Structures are given as C-alpha cells and as structure tokens.
Amino acid sequence: MSLRRVVITGLGPVSSIGIGASAYSEGLREGVNGVSPIACFDPTGFPYIMAGEVHAFRPENMVRRLSVEEWGRTSLFAASAARLAVADAGIDEDELAASRAGSSMGTTGGESQVLEKLTGDSLTAGMGGLDANLVRQVSSARLSQAVNRELRLTGDAVTLSTACSASNYALGYAYDLIRTGEADYMIAGGADSVGRWSHAGFYRLGALTETACSPFDKDRSGIITGEGGAAMFLESLESAQARGARIHAEVLGYGLNCDANHMVAPNRDSIAECMRIAHANSGVKAEEVDYICAHGTGTPANDFVEASAVVDVFGENAPPISSTKSMLGHTMGAASGLGAIASVLGIAGSFLPPTINFKTPDPDMPKIDCVPNKARTADVRIAQVNGFAFGGNNAIVMLGRPS
Amino acid sequence: MTSAPAAAPAPATAGTGTSALAITGFGVLSGAGIGPEALAAALTAPAAPVDVSEMFEEELPRNDAHALVDFKVRDHLGRKGTSFFDRSTSLGMVACKEALADTGLEITDDNRARIGITLGTTAGSAKSTSDYSKDTFIQDRPYLVNPLLFPNAVMNCAAGQSGIKFRLQGPNATIAGGPMAMLNVLRYTRNLINCGYADALLAGAVEEFSPHSSWAVHYAQSVFGGDAAPGEGAAVFVVENADAVRAAGRTPDAEVLSIEVGVFEPPGPDGEFSRGLGLCISRALERAGVTAADITTVATAANGMALLDEAEERAIGAVLGEGTARLRVKESTGEAFSASGAFQLAALLARHRAEPARDGELSLITTRSAEGAAGAAVVRGWSRAGGDHG
C-alpha cells in the first residue's frame, strides 16, 4: 500500500516561557529562563526550591467543553495544548469532530499531582475520607481522553507513559496512524505537572540542581523539574494541501529502542543505535541533519553520554545540539513534545533555540556546538529530536522542512 | 565506552497496518492463580475472594480481594536484583517470564533488538508513587525518600525492568489505559509489527493489589454501584505477525483479527455511549471479515456497575442480537482495572487451551470506561491438542 506523508499544521505549547506558538517561539528566540521558586506546593524543608512551573496556566480560560473541576492539572495541560494546536491548524471544529481523529499523548507522572493531593488528604482524613471525584482523576488514561472529550474526537485516545521520552513515542505513533491510513487527524504531544514526589526523587538521585539548569556546561549539576503541555496537529500532506493549511514541518520518521541495561543510567551505544534507527526509518543521512534538539537534561551523565553518542554517529562535525531544558527545566513527559515544537519553530522560522546558562565548555566532553546562550539564525531543513527515559526507553523523531 | 558497530540498521518497512496478529504463547497471574489452567478452572467455578487483611498495614475498605496473597517475586525470579521491585513490576515481570516459557519464539542475540515489550497500566504502581509522596509529607526532612525506589514510582518501571531482565532491546513501551489498556496495547503492538519496528512483542497489562487500588474500586463503586471485589495480576502475550508465524510453519494459539477503539459521550441515559461502542463492535467485525453470527462468545468487561454494564450490553445486543454466550472474567478475577482487559483475552485463550472442541471459534472482546472510551476486538483461538504450537 502507499503510505501517506505526514505533516504538522498546528502547534500548541503550554510552557513556562510562553503559551501558544508565537509566545513560545519568542521565548525560545530570547532565551527566556522559565525557572522560578516553587509555588504549587510548600517547598519548606527541601534544599532546592526552584522549578519550571507554568504560573500563567489558566485552564478555565483555555478549555471549552471540559469542566475543570473534573480533570486533573496534567489532563488540563493536555487538553489546553490540544485546543491551541487545533486553533493554530485553523481547522473547523465540527469538521474535525466528524473525522477519523484521535490523540496520542505522553507522560511521566500522569495525574500524580492528584494522587499526591489524595495522599496528603489521607494523612488527615484516612483513606476512607477521600473525595471520590478526585480518586477518579488518578488514571493517566485520562490525559488523552481529556483531549478527545474536549475536541469531541471519536478515534484513538492513547496515553503513552514511557517517562521522559513519552512525547516522542506519542508523536511517532500519531505519525504512523496517519501514514498508514488508520486516522486522518491526530493530536500528539505530552503533559506533566510539578509535584513533591518527583522533586524529592530527583534530588535523592543526585540529579537535581539548585537554581539553574546548564546542559553541556563543565559545571552542570542536574535537572530542574518542570511542567507543561505540548500538542501538535498532524494530518496527511494531501489533507493539508487540500484545505490550504499552513504546513509547519513534515514528520520524516522515528526510531525506538531499549537499553535493556539499567533503569536510570543512559547507555551510549544504545542511544547511538537509536539515532541510526531513526535516520534509517526516515530515509535521512546523518550529514543531512541541521539541528539536534537534545534530551539535554543537564545531569553530568546524560549530557556526556548524549554528546558522545552524537559524535559516534555524526563524527567530529556534528550539527548544533541545544537543550530547551535549559529554559524550561525538565518537563518530563512533555519534554520531547516541547522539544519537537521548538524544532518545528526552528525549521519554520530558521533559527536554533539556545542552551542558556552556559558558561564553561567541558573539556572531558566531545566537542559539540550547544548554541550557547543566544538563539542563532540558521537554515534548518532537517531536525532530530532526542528523547531518553528511565527504563532505557529511547525515542528519536526526525522532522523536516516541507518540500 | 566504545561505539556500536556503525552498520546502518535496515529501515522499518511499513505494511498495511492492518494484518492479523498471532499470539504464540502467554503468561497469566491472577487471583485465580498462576497459569492458564488455574484461570480456566476459575472460569468454570469462580472462587470467592480471599482474605487480604494481613497483606498491608493500611486500612482497607474490605478485607477480601482476588489477590495473590502469597505471591513473592523471589519465588519466581530469585532474590538477586528483585528486592526493590514493587508488586506491579514483580507481577509484570513474572508474567513476561511465563509468556516466554510458553512460546516457541526463541530469543537470541540475533533477534533481541527486534523484540520489545508493550505493557498496559492505569497509573503504574499507585502505591509506590503515593508512598513516595507520603514520605515527603511525614519524614523529618521532605526529601528523605529512598532513591533506590524512585524508578518504581514512575509508570514505565515494569516494562523497563522486564526489558533489562530478559535483555529485550526492541521498542519498550508503557500505555496507561485503565480498562482500555489492553486494547490500546494491542493496537500499538500491531502498529510496531506491521510498520516494521519490531518482529515480536511481549504485550500485556499489569495491575497490583494494594490499599490504594482497593480504595479506588471502593470509590468507583460509591459512584457507579456494584460490589465486585478488587483483583490484581498480569497477563502477557507473545505477539507476532500472523503471516510470518504461519510462513515459519508454526501454529499460533490465537489470532487477533481486529481491534477498534474510540471515545464518545460517557455512559448515560441518552444511549450515545452505547452507539459509540456499537460502532467499535461493528467496525471490529467488518475489519476481521466476519459477521455477528460468527461470534461464539463475548468476553465483556462487566463488573456489576449497572450504568456501565447496561451500556455495554445495549451495544453488544444492538450489533450481535440476542443469545451469544458471555464470558465475564471479573466474576473470577475481580476488578483489576488495566489487568482486567488482559484477563478478558487470557480467559478466552485459557479456555481454548482447556477445551479443544472450541478450536477455531471466534470471540469478541468488549470494554468501556466511565470517561467514554470504548473498544472491541475479534479473536480466533485454538487449543494445543494438535501438539504443535507457537
């Protein structure tokens, strides 16, 4: 059978540096730091108190069908991002609802913020004194179902909970569903919320930094936990052309593999292999890649392994590789989705998002160009979006300028 | 560290995305016990839920459940490396082990990069995540959580740890779907196989019994009615391309001919949801190339929640008419959320294996959620009476 080409025609970022494609693009170009003191929980007693929260998020002003009382924060990030993506795609809502359309959303913690509230409540009220309406919100299946319900999509609603590469899994799956003809329109992305449990966990893992995330820097010392929602509107090239839609970028393909080696330590060979798989599946040669949107968490281990794998695959003249996590913190299940949107904006707007907070090159790391501190004008025809995760769940998506 | 051999991987070549899937073996752990025989026996004569009051320190809404009270991971996988596993990871990994022991598929260094894992869940181990939050509330210092337990608190732990245990380097995915999880997993798995990302997947779903899951059942019943006991367990299926299995001269245990899902208005008096589920059933029949009359059994998600059960029955009746036999697995295994969907499929397969007279029968699986998600799948199964199997 003939496979359809798949394009992205709508962008919906809900991030700490901007909500909506133009605000987010502006934030990326300016290198805005979205990290701030934690407000969503009382950080008293935590040694580090910074996070990449989306303080400006007002779901009640973004969703139209969902009742915000009935859905957790992460589902509302997902549904709000989807709303933005559909508006950006300029497709009629009723037409979309009558089509073969669905959603594919990634997450790390799902509605763990709801579970955390219930946990706190149970300490005073007991497990028998909880709010049934809140208990019902714990299921992570609801992230994608929230998108479908908000937009009346009657197709797939899939929540991929493959931790910090989940958005890439979700984007890849949505691409396949469209190219094989299983669906005509898909919303793909991811969402996550800041919470105490992950803040504590990353701290105790020695993977949290105090004030600023500085990927690829010699003195990098970890992540900042972040949150947000990412959604992209996908359709076939023919569909986009037929309705005269603005095409932001094309999804060229993706690769998945598993380290099958360690739950939390990244694996250089396996990550390099995932890049090769992604290139092969996309029909892309390494030398054609103009930009890599790094997983770039800012931990000593990740950045060293990632840069080394890049050099293994690309050689000494690897393309520029920058980390949006320097600005956003680590938005977990939304991270590769917000990275993909940044890459799409870079392709469409001919710029490279910067790695901010960069001060000192790391002499122990293979030499890479991390686009330090300032966004750069550049012709981006093909971009690679890296996503790695606990469990060795690697997922890499390739995006291209529509030809 | 050295780099991997630079030989370029062969590109994944997409087929139609709609070819049938073969199941060539499976492992199942439920309150009914471990293995297909225990499940088949429980389907014939459902046992009462067992006393679980000694399993946990926390208070429970009821003292019984369809739980594997004596389950200990070390009995199945040894002590080494398993001491920090939570129950969800343990159940999932043992189900993977059982599935691999049940299949003719052999894993070697030549194919381990082409074999992956796709596991369904609701919210991972809610107990592990909640305990992590709890420690931040009650410890003298909120950050004094145990770092070794951190991966347990993240939803992809069971799939990730199983990938490590069985050294499977192919795609490793976790899908949070609750009652939809197994059908979502099957659709995702079908795509991985038909688009050429993998040759085989260990595909299934896991749910642990815990105070948290027991209370979740309790609160759901406070809204929707019913009194089914909570359940737990995992079922994992070895899934391959049906054409490839037959071309290799192997005989599958089952073929998954179609899987259709959708999201509609939540179950309510207007019947919109039943029309949606009915649409999924009709599409599933059509894509399987079968008619309503061909279906011998419907494995439903019935759990005593009247609003949902009635909506599901209305949809089935509207498409299949009256008289098709039902298999209600939750009567034997309790309400185990995402694992229940896996048990629906496992129950059909366990019964096929136990009753060769059913060889070649077609069954329909249906599911539904209070959020409005619905799905249906068509499955054809066989016993192993012929001696040859996957």
Automatic annotation (TrEMBL), chain B:
Pfam families: ketoacyl-synt, Ketoacyl-synt_C. Its EC number is 2.3.1.179. It comes from the Bacteria. InterPro entries: Beta-ketoacyl_synthase, Ketoacyl_synth_C, Ketoacyl_synth_N, Thiolase-like. Belongs to the thiolase-like superfamily. Beta-ketoacyl-ACP synthases family. Residues 21-221 form the Beta-ketoacyl synthase-like N-terminal domain. One of its GO terms (molecular function) is 3-oxoacyl-[acyl-carrier-protein] synthase activity. It comes from Streptomyces zagrosensis. This is 3-oxoacyl-[acyl-carrier-protein] synthase II. Residues 278-349 form the Beta-ketoacyl synthase C-terminal domain. GO terms for biological process: fatty acid biosynthetic process. Keywords: Acyltransferase, Transferase. Gene3D superfamilies: 3.40.47.10.
